[in-house]
């Protein structure tokens, strides 16, 4: 009892012991370890942990000395309890990175005694305990034992030949923890020792140990094994042919570890390993599968008997199943790491795996399923892959191969789905679920085999099926229903619906929830609303079962939250798809929905279900519930739950659209009153949804908006002038303003709206605060939209804007807005009648204000879009004859090409093309860039004709012309699917050859174009990486011939002309990291540039690479740490300017982020160089503060990502 009280006190932070008390407590606890009562001994051990951090260092050393000597005792109980005590102390020692000497001194004291204990060959139990403790220390505190690493290795190596298997295994575990932190020289010593022993050629029990050791150290420190693989692999391959099943198992485990940990070094050995795996995955000398296949054709009556006889088969001496299992795992490792070999794997490995689905051992069969699932996951299209439906893109060859093998896969799984083994059936369903997701529609011809009594129905109705079995079967059925056309299932509904309905009544909530999700999908397939006319399926026999099962769960109050939400959603779909079949049951069900809307827990799900019901083309009768329902929905708009607000606004919009004839102004008043508070720049998306609802009300029930002029409209106009307004929100406001003037809602006239919009830019109403540039464009679009809706009143507005532009007294802001408004109005209206407009715009090109000139240029382009016939010839003529205005006129032309349709532009393409090529060699880079953008966007109009002309210009012309052509290609690569994509895929290699152009600027723009392709459409360049990457890596090097000195008065300044191209190269590499490279990345390029002028960019890339390919980073760690250390410890000279200090501080923070990313890799945490670097950071107050703040930023960002509202 007293020991227990002591333990409780020691666990409190408040307890403080003086020196005398420490001595007494330690002595008493060590004495209690020898107590005869086992419970007292255990409590004493538990006290040791908290005591470590409460007493002085020499007391901890006293405890350790006593425990170590007791561990050598001849008394087994004392030995065991002392070992536990040592493990407890080791677990409580503070990490060595904190800089405390306690950990170092205690570890050294324990280690020296453990090494002595390990050498005691006569007492195996002492050896085992010592090895256990040593493994604990090495796994947690290896960095503090660097001075002992050599002696630890020397003491462990002889144990690999011990006569006791347990000793050998624990020695291997200790070695695996040692290799992750020992020096390269020691690792080489260990590797050479193992190689020497394996090269002897004699097969002994130690041979198995050595190969097992190779596999284990590869898993822990695999990056280091890479340089020895050329010698290791032939030896391991040779031992595979030895008639020893256990040895073969260890060989394949070693192969698996090598493949996973050293993918690059294993590339040349993959084919050998795959052949061995395929050979031994069928290795089963004690079983005749052919006889089993013949019996498969017998009657169904004998199936169960055969299964029973299979289960009864047993041979305790048969170890061949371990060989087959390790082969399957090795194949899974190859598949998971080598997506580039996918087609070959489908040709050789896939059929072999399918053939082995009949494997008699359940554990082996599970691993074969997992290997095939890995193959299916690799078949998923990578990011940026062109979908087959996109402009003639071909189906992925691997997916085509998979579809050809679907019949054999289903046939092989057919028997397994009848197995009594739940584990086997679960494996089948996992595989089929993945198959249905990867290849939608591929199982359409096999639904009877997969669904009927041998498949899902059997697993759902079999009384012996576990809960997990039913959940897996339902999950697969859901994926199957989602990924196949509805008509495929119609003949089978009557078979699989009853068991699903029974599952909705299951007492286990997870089964019920999954069954409701499947029921929801069944409702969608029995009567798909997307194509109702083509459906001849009679849904009436199934309505009652679907409705009753869901209603029972919808009414229940004492069920799990997940089931409640699924029941609400499922009933929403039933009413949406089958509402006209429910008759008298409809209105009571809608009343239940009202109750769920009033409940805080279920209201969100109820709103989403209500949105479905109101959007139904069946026009469900909602009149009885509308008054109360709309009032409740209106109250949700003032709630502080953003997702609820968005769903409510969506529901109200659909409700107003489809049920306007049932709505009265009084019903909508509560909703309208809540809208002003929702329209603000603090949440533009909510504002957009609220404005969309207003627009809908304006169109279908304008009488509800009589009072918005003084409430909602001021908020809308305030948002128009916000710098944050753009995209969808701006489009919503434009639509609202048009609806207001067309429907004459709220008695607001066209002129009043125009005046309110333009007021802050003109005369007495002009805003005192500076107006953001974006506000001009927003107001211009709104004014143009109003003018389009009211063309009769627009002519006066146009005249007013022209007068404002001409008047000398007009402010710059009013002139800019007037030009932008004229441009936007001209885009949708023909302004050919305004004869003085051309003159006014050309005069503005001579303005002293750059923004006025830009606005005039934009206006000319937009006006031309609305009147190509008159303005385009005028513009082209001016470009040719006015060199001073050329840049602005080309910008206007860019607007025309960007905004005009291909049909309108085609008659003028040749004329524009010829003019642009006259200016592609312009000396000014800005002009060339605009010409390039025009060429690129014009190519999209007729790619088949124009792309070859661009390609032709690569071989002829000056460097300026080549750079313009390459930049033009960048503008043809957009993030949306385009007809040009297939043409580009065939010829982009020719444009990428400019990466080797003799001109520096051409290479730079080629890199920018390459970056654009990697970001927007990586599929275009993925197959060319082998030829392009060497040129890319070459551009990351510093070239001395591009560095020059410039004299600036008494000072000399170094200028690097290659800096821009190196930056472009690294930006390109960063983009490629996400879209194409990962494991095929040459990390040497990084550590060669960690100390130069673009080091910040390389730090960012290093941090990204840590997440994407930790193995590659770990292999080069030694070379990465030194530049990071140099950056973190560099100090700016005392007399430097403020900017130098800020630059160095930002560099240091960037380097620290890279360090934090490195420390997130488990292997790197134990590396000696990283442990030293971490200690250096923690020992320096300034660096430690920066590092802690970065770690906090990282964790808070991760939390924010996890809790982000995605609804």
From TrEMBL:
This is Cullin-associated and neddylation-dissociated 2 (putative). GO terms for biological process: SCF complex assembly. It comes from Scleropages formosus (Asian bonytongue). Residues 291-320 are annotated as: Disordered. Residues 1020-1175 form the TATA-binding protein interacting (TIP20) domain. The keyword Repeat applies. Belongs to the CAND family. PANTHER family: TIP120. Keywords: Repeat, Ubl conjugation pathway. Residues 291-318 have a biased composition (Acidic residues). Pfam families: HEAT_EZ (PF13513), TIP120 (PF08623), TPR_CAND1 (PF25782). It comes from the Eukaryota. Coiled coil: none annotated.
């Amino acid at each position: 009892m007293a020991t227990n009280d002591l333990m409780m006190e020691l666990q409190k932070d408040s307890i403080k012991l003086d020196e005398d008390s420490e001595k007494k407590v330690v002595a008493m606890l060590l004495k209690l370890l020898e107590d005869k009562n086992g419970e007292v001994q255990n409590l004493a051990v538990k006290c040791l942990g908290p005591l470590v951090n409460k007493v002085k260092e020499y007391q901890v050393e006293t405890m350790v000395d006593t425990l170590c000597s007791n561990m050598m005792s001849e008394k087994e109980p004392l030995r065991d309890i002392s070992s536990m005590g040592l493990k407890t102390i080791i677990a409580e020692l503070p990490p060595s990175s904190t800089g405390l000497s306690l950990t170092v001194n205690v570890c050294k004291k324990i280690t020296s005694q453990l090494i002595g204990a390990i050498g005691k060959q006569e007492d195996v139990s002492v050896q085992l305990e010592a090895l256990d403790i040593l493994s604990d220390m090495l796994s947690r505190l290896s960095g503090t034992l660097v001075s002992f690493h050599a002696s630890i290795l020397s003491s462990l190596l002889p144990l690999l030949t011990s006569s006791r298997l347990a000793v050998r295994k624990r020695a291997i575990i200790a070695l695996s923890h040692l290799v992750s932190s020992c020096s390269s020289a020691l690792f080489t010593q260990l590797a050479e020792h193992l190689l020497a022993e394996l090269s002897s050629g004699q097969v002994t029990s130690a041979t198995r140990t050595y190969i097992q050791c190779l596999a284990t150290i590869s898993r822990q420190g695999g990056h280091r094994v890479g340089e020895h693989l050329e010698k290791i692999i032939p030896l391991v391959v040779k031992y595979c042919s030895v008639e020893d099943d256990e040895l073969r198992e260890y060989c394949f485990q070693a192969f698996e570890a090598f493949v996973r940990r050293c993918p690059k070094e294993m590339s040349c050995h993959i084919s050998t390993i795959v052949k061995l795996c395929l050979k031994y995955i069928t290795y089963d000398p004690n079983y005749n599968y052919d006889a089993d296949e013949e019996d498969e054709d017998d009657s169904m009556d004998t199936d169960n008997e055969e299964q029973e006889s299979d289960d009864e088969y047993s041979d305790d001496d048969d170890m061949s199943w371990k060989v087959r299992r390790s082969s399957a795992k090795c194949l899974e490792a190859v598949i998971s790491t080598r997506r580039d070999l996918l087609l070959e794997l489908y040709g050789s490995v896939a059929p072999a795996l399918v053939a082995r689905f009949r494997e008699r051992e359940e554990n082996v069969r599970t691993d074969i399923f997992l290997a095939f699932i890995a193959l299916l996951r690799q078949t998923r299209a990578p990011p940026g892959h062109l979908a087959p439906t996109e402009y003639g893109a071909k189906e992925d060859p691997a997916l085509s191969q998979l579809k050809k093998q679907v019949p054999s896969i289903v046939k092989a799984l057919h028997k397994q789905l009848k197995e009594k083994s739940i584990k086997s059936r679960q494996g089948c369903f996992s595989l089929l679920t993945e198959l249905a997701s990867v290849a939608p529609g591929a199982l359409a011809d096999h639904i009877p085999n997969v669904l009927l009594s041998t498949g899902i129905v059997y697993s759902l109705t079999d009384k012996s099926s576990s809960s997990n079995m039913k959940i897996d079967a339902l999950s697969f059925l859901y994926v199957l229903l989602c990924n196949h056309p509805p008509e495929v299932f119609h003949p089978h509904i009557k078979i699989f619906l009853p068991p699903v309905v029974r599952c909705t009544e299951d007492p286990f909530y997870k089964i019920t929830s999954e069954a409701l999700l499947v029921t929801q999908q069944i409702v969608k397939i029995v009567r798909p609303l997307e194509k109702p006319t083509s459906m001849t399926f009679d849904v009436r026999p199934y309505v009652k079962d679907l409705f009753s099962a869901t209603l029972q769960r919808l009414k229940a109050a004492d069920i799990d939250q997940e089931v409640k939400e699924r029941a609400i959603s499922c009933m929403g779909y039933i009413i949406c798809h089958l509402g006209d079949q429910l008759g008298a049951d409809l209105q009571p069900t809608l009343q239940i929905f009202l109750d769920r809307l009033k409940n805080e827990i279920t209201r969100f799900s109820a709103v989403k279900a209500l949105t479905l019901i109101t959007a139904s083309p069946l026009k469900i009768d909602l009149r009885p519930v509308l008054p109360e329902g709309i009032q409740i929905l209106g109250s949700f708009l003032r709630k502080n739950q953003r997702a609820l607000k968005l769903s409510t606004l969506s529901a109200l919009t659909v409700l107003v659209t489809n049920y306007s004839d049932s709505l009265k102004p009084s019903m909508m008043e509560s909703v309208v009153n809540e809208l002003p508070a929702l329209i603000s720049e603090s949440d533009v998306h909510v504002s957009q949804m609220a404005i969309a609802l207003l627009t809908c009300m304006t169109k279908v029930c304008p009488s509800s908006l009589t009072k918005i002029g003084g409430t909602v409209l001021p908020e809308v106009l305030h948002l128009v002038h916000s710098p944050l307004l753009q995209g969808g929100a701006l489009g919503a406001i434009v639509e609202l303003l048009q609806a207001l003037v067309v429907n004459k809602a709220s008695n607001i006239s066209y002129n009043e709206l125009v005046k309110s919009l333009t007021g802050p830019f003109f005369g007495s109403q002009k805003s005192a605060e500076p107006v953001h540039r974006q506000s001009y464009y927003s107001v211009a679009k709104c004014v143009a939209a109003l003018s389009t809706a009211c063309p009769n009143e627009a002519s006066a507005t146009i005249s007013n804007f022209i007068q404002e532009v001409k008047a000398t007294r007009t402010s710059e802001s009013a002139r800019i807005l007037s030009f932008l408004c004229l441009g936007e109005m001209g885009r949708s209206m023909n302004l050919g009648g305004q004869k003085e407009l051309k003159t006014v715009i050309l005069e503005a090109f001579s303005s002293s204000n750059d923004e006025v000139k830009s606005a005039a240029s934009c206006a000319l382009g937009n006006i031309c879009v609305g009147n190509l016939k008159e303005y385009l010839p005028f513009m082209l003529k001016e470009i040719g004859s006015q060199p001073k205005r050329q840049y602005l006129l080309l910008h206007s032309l860019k607007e025309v090409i960007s905004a005009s349709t291909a049909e309108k532009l085609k008659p003028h393409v040749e004329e524009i093309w010829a003019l642009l090529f006259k200016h592609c060699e312009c000396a000014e880079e800005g002009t060339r860039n605009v010409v390039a953008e025009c060429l690129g966007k014009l190519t999209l109009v007729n790619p088949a004709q124009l792309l070859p002309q661009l390609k032709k210009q690569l071989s002829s012309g000056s460097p300026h012309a080549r750079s313009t052509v390459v930049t033009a290609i960048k503008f043809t690569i957009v993030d949306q699917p385009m007809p040009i994509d297939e043409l580009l895929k065939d010829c982009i290699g020719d444009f990428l050859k400019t990466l080797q152009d003799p001109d520096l600027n051409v290479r730079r723009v080629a890199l920018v174009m390459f970056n654009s392709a990697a970001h927007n459409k990586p599929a275009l360049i993925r197959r060319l990486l082998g030829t392009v990457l060497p040129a890319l890596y070459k551009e990351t090097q510093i070239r001395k011939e591009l560095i020059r000195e410039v004299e600036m008065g008494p000072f000399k300044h170094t200028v690097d002309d290659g800096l821009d191209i190196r930056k472009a190269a690294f930006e390109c590499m960063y983009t490629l990291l996400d879209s194409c490279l990962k494991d095929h990345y040459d990390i040497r390029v990084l550590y060669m540039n960690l100390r130069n002028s673009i080091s910040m960019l390389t730090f960012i890339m290093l941090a990204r690479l840590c997440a994407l390919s930790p193995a590659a980073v770990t292999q080069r760690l030694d070379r990465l740490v030194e530049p990071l250390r140099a950056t973190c410890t560099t100090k700016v000279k005392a007399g430097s300017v403020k900017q130098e200090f800020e630059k160095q501080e930002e560099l240091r923070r960037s380097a620290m982020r890279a360090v934090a990313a490195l420390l997130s890799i488990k292997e790197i945490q134990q590396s000696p160089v990283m442990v030293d670097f971490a200690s250096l950071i923690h020992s320096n107050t300034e660096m430690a503060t920066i590092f802690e703040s970065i770690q906090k930023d990282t964790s808070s960002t991760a939390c924010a990502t996890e809790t982000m509202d995605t609804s």
